[in-house]
Specification:
Radius of gyration: 20 Å
Number of strands: 16
Strand order of the largest sheet: 1-16-15
Shape: flat
Oligomer: single chain
Helix content: 25-40%
Structural class: alpha+beta
Organism: Stenotrophomonas bentonitica
InterPro entries: SapC
Protein name: SapC family protein
Length: 255
């Protein structure tokens, strides 16, 4: 998702190739990372992006706070958290306490990395994350004790496992949207309270007319699988673009 304004926008932040936020993920090993610790930190890492990946299991919660959109050839679902290259829900590194925090953000700095076969994964950690103490001090919670994973690693393993399963289910859902040709390109033009204009483009939404024309058999199958509800969550969430406009309007022009 990209945005254009009538005033020169700030330069987009440079990002390493690979998953959003992750700079140097490494597979966790008790022998190599015995002294590593995790230090409590804020959501500063998510402050300079306008869209965050989403999985279908959280569509219901996300739709109450953010527009859910699709992008790319695989129709990856994202939540729009800003109009320009700024997350309007992060202030001084703190996520808005009244808003749902996407699972992708809560998972960081942990992630599953593929190992060997396609269905084999290992737990990894972004070694460049500010939360990671690589043994320089006693600050933070240890990742391993006596050669065994601590509770924080066990919890991360479960969370990442659940997220990966949700991601696989999400890909099946978006593949069905593509197969049924339900997605259309969409651009929006918004006017802020001070008169500034912005154009947001580079995303897709479900075409309401095509969705309503789905064959009865498909409707029944999607109802039983929960996919109908997902489309309705997506469509209702698009009204949240007005909330993004209000948040952007509340910022100074140079922001």
């Amino acid at each position: 998702m990209t945005a254009e304004t009538t005033t020169p926008p700030a330069a987009a932040p440079s990002q390493a190739t690979g998953p959003l936020f992750y700079q140097a993920p490494v597979p966790l090993r008790s022998d190599l990372h015995a002294a590593w610790r995790l230090v409590p930190d804020t959501a500063h890492f998510a402050g300079e992006t306008n869209a965050i990946p989403a999985v279908i299991g959280e569509f219901g919660s996300l739709a109450q706070h953010y527009p859910i959109i699709f992008t790319g050839k695989d129709a990856m679902p994202l939540v729009a958290v800003g109009l320009a290259q700024r997350n309007l829900f992060v202030t001084d590194g703190v996520w808005d306490e009244q808003s749902y925090v996407p699972a992708y953000v809560r998972r960081y700095p942990f992630v599953f990395m593929q190992a060997g076969d396609q269905d084999e994964y290992v737990l990894a950690l972004d070694s460049a994350a500010r939360q990671v103490n690589q043994g320089q001090s006693e600050d933070g919670v240890p990742l391993f004790q006596d050669g065994k994973a601590t509770e924080i690693v066990d919890n991360a393993m479960r969370f990442c496992g659940d997220y990966t399963r949700e991601h696989d289910q999400t890909r099946r859902f978006t593949a069905a949207l593509i197969e049924n040709e339900l997605l259309i390109d969409r651009n929006i033009d918004v006017t802020l309270a001070d008169g500034r204009q912005m154009s947001v483009n580079g995303f897709q939404v479900v075409d309401v007319e095509k969705f309503a024309a789905l064959p009865d058999a498909t409707v029944v199958a999607w109802h039983r699988s929960g996919w109908l509800a997902l489309v309705h969550h997506h469509l209702s969430s698009l009204a949240r673009f007005s909330a993004l406009v209000n948040r952007q309007s509340a910022l100074p022009a140079d922001a």
